Model the fold of this input.
Amino acid sequence: MGRRSTKPGVARVSSEAEQQCVVREANEAVSVLHMALAAGAQRLALRCECGDAGCVACVSLTRGEYEAVRAYGSHFAVGVNHENPEDACVLSESARFEVIDVIGGDSRYHVLARNPRHAWSERSES
Ligand SMILES: [Zn+2]
Done:
């Protein structure tokens, strides 16, 4: 993989965006497993996608809610008040979670490029 190094000057943004991507990929795996076990309105227990490497919060979304978030490469599901206001804006808020849109330039590019649902051309697998 070799994605640990970050460019000088954008290290904070990149590492946070990268963390969001790593958690998103983990949540994608959970959602796939969950789909195999149970369909319908049951909630998925997912990791908060706020990008804070120390965050261990969980968010609970129904499959429909999760799919609505994953429909956009820059949208993430985070715990309430877990958004980074420098980097993201809150699109919707409920008692269980917030949906954020990553709007910071470098971060937005990064998370869109790493969108597991829509691979961009420069995504490298090896
Ligand atoms: Zn969080």
User: Anything to note?
Assistant: The radius of gyration is 14 Å. Residues 48, 50, 52, 55, 57, 78-79, 82 surround zinc ion (CB under 6 Å).
